[in-house]
Amino acid sequence: MSKRPGRTWWGQRFLEALAGCTDAGRLKRGRGYAGPSRILAFATDETGVTATVRGNVNPYYGVYEEPRYEIRIELMPIPPAGWDKAIAYLGERAGFVAQLLMGEMPDDIEAAFSDLKLALLPSSRRDFRLTDCSCPDYANPCKHIAGVYYRLAAELDQDPFLLFELRGLPRERLLEGLRRTPLGRALVGLIAEEDGPIEPADSFFTRPLPAPAVPDYATFWSGHRRLPADIAPVTPAAVPALLIKKGGDYPPFWDKDGSFVALMEELYLRVRSGGRRPR
Fold it and tell me: CB–CB of 166/75 below 8 Å?
């Protein structure tokens, strides 16, 4: 778990939704309930989050034994028809398909869901179907629920695909749906292609091969797979190293507040510019 939750844009949006549905006092106290010393158990499933939070002994209110509170948080699920529409929409755009199949969260995915009149990230209390705590506090969300929110935001920083699962779509079902789209099949086919076995050559020079009797000029110029006519423009990656990007902005070994990918982008630019600081 990252040391400070909300370090990614989607984690920050999740915390903004929390700030809009609780008072500042409980929100501030909730930060103290987000650590492992308070959250004794934490688990996610297709419908929400379940947690056990350690409370305080308070003889003034007759609490002489340390209490354990059970918390349940559920987001409003997207219906299956909505997910079918979303997968079809995302599957027509090469940038979305490529990034999601590689385990990355596209920066403009929220705008895509907005075009479909769907919500992936929560924006208000209406996006939460259930927020429940067994503590006697009348307010909802209480400080214990707020602590679990912070813990969940930290989990989202590490694994943004939890957003899809909390909205009712498991990761494998999402990826399988994208693989079945025409673009997904093409990309998976390219990724799955493997080099043939290495065989010794009888000559240092490449020998010419006889051409077929009737060349297939149409396939030569158009290719075996036809790409869609409308392809979103792709900007060149500042960090071409795939392993760095797959780790995300805040990989588990990175404890700084700044983005690890942003740091590597600056390093790559300095190498390209001969050591000069990029402008």
Answer: yes
| Distance (Å, whole) CA 2 – CA 152 | 11
SS3 at position 52: strand
pLDDT at 2: 45
Q: H helices within 236-275, ranges in order?
A: 242-247, 260-272
Least confident of 75-79, 86-90, 221-225: 221-225
* Cβ contacts of 237 within 8 Å, gap of 6 or more: 245
Q: What is the pTM of this model?
A: 0.65
Long-range contacts of 109-113 (CB under 8 A, 24+ apart): 110/13, 112/86, 113/86
Residue of 246, 274, 277 lying closest to 260 (CA atoms): 246
Mean residue pLDDT of the chain comes to 80
Contact 22, 139 (CB under 8 A): yes
What beta strand segments (E) does the chain contain? 39-44, 49-54, 68-75, 128-133
Closest CA to 184 of 104, 246, 98, 103: 98
